[in-house]
From TrEMBL:
Pfam families: GUB_WAK_bind, WAK_assoc
Domain Wall-associated receptor kinase C-terminal: 180-247
PANTHER family reported for this sequence: OS01G0690200 PROTEIN, WALL-ASSOCIATED RECEPTOR KINASE GALACTURONAN-BINDING DOMAIN-CONTAINING PROTEIN
Domain Wall-associated receptor kinase galacturonan-binding as annotated: residue spans: 29-97
Secretion signal, residue range per the UniProt entry: 1-22
Name this protein carries in UniProt: Wall-associated receptor kinase galacturonan-binding domain-containing protein
Highest taxon of source: Eukaryota
Keyword annotations of the record: Glycoprotein, Signal
Compartment list: Membrane
Molecular-function annotations in GO: polysaccharide binding
Gene Ontology, cellular component aspect: membrane
Principal location class: membrane
InterPro entries to which the protein is assigned, alphabetical: WAK_assoc_C, WAK_GUB
Length: 257
């Protein structure tokens, strides 16, 4: 028992020492704005905040300075310069609404070659199971899912006639046990839970509204640090959370210690 406790103390001391060493207490990490989004831990605004204000996966690049007159709407901020464009961040339940630029800027027929799981290389962020799924099926050995709308993809890679339908549940691999799609070739794109598909033309609007992503396993309890009067920090080198407290002290969890 005594040995275990000492081990934990030694580990904590090591984490603390490493974090302190990286000097994460200089510039403030007060919440920043990009368009109408509030950027705060684990997100941080690349170019305007020090990298220690958040986790590397959650770097947000804001383009809202491109047109200072505001005449043309700036595109939503991208996540770490990727194809993911962030429309909303729900800090309360650790979720993000984002759309995939490649899906929005091209025809529905391109989605038939799309695999969201393989393009989401960003660790720590997962497509939420709460999403609905836009399902493309083709070459079905049975009749396609009821309510399917035909999409003519002649002329596209993997073209021919596809059928578009909406699944209330998003399953990244496609429907596992849906009898009516067995034998189909399929592709699935996540869309927001309450989406409705009335016509194949609804595709563009549905993908533009985005889909839900959830984050888990981000180190540290930022709410607790903040509640104790500190500012959250992330030391990418040490892969450790830190709480920057008044007077320039860096604590491993909260300022109360
Ligand atoms: C935030 O701005 C985006 C456009 O960048 C807009 O689509 C969205 O509705 C706005 N959200 C809120 C809550 O105002
Ligand atoms: C963020 O983008 C940079 C530059 O493109 C890349 O090197 C890095 O791996 C990305 N980080 C994450 C967590 O995706
Ligand atoms: C998180 O909360 C927001 C707003 O309350 C909601 O729109 C969103 O669907 C929730 N996210 C998940 C993954 O349930
Ligand atoms: C999508 O990609 C993932 C990861 O690369 C793979 O496991 C999965 O089988 C692919 N799904 C489809 C429908 O191709
Ligand atoms: C699909 O489009 C191609 C050319 O764009 C046309 O030749 C073909 O007849 C169409 N197929 C259907 C089923 O409408
Ligand atoms: C259907 O299967 C045929 C033969 O395997 C293939 O040539 C064609 O591209 C497939 N059509 C679609 C839409 O995937
Ligand atoms: C910390 O709390 C303040 C209000 O006390 C709030 O404005 C700020 O957004 C919080 N920061 C984080 C990262 O939650």
């Amino acid at each position: 028992m005594f040995q275990n406790t000492s081990l934990v103390l030694v580990l904590l001391a090591a984490v603390f020492a490493t974090a302190t060493h990286a000097q994460l207490v200089g510039e403030s990490c007060a919440p920043a704005a990009c368009g109408n989004l509030t950027i705060k831990y684990p997100f941080w605004l690349r170019g305007r905040q020090p990298a220690y204000c958040g986790h590397p996966t959650f770097a947000v690049t804001c383009d809202d300075d491109d047109d200072p007159t505001g005449a043309t709407a700036a595109p939503p901020p991208s996540l770490n310069g990727s194809y993911l464009r962030v429309l909303a961040i729900h800090y309360g339940n650790s979720s993000v609404v984002a759309y995939h630029a490649n899906l929005v800027e091209s025809s529905a027929c391109r989605a038939t070659r799309f695999n969201m799981s393989s393009s989401l290389a960003l660790s720590l962020l997962d497509v939420s199971r709460a999403n609905a799924g836009l399902l493309f099926s083709a070459n079905c050995s049975r009749t396609p899912p009821t309510g399917s709308l035909p999409v003519n993809c002649t002329g596209f890679s993997g073209g021919g006639e596809w059928f578009l339908s909406l699944n209330r549940m998003y399953d990244p691999g496609g429907p596992k046990r849906a009898v009516d799609t067995v034998g189909c070739q399929y592709s699935v794109v996540p869309v927001l839970p309450w989406s409705e598909l009335r016509s194949a033309r609804d595709y563009a609007g549905l993908v533009r509204r985005g889909f839900l992503l959830e984050w888990t396993a981000v180190p540290g309890d930022c709410a607790a640090c903040n509640a104790s009067g500190g500012e959250c920090r992330y030391d990418a080198g040490a892969m450790a959370f830190g709480c920057s407290c008044p007077g320039g002290r860096l604590q491993p969890a909260t300022c109360g210690e």
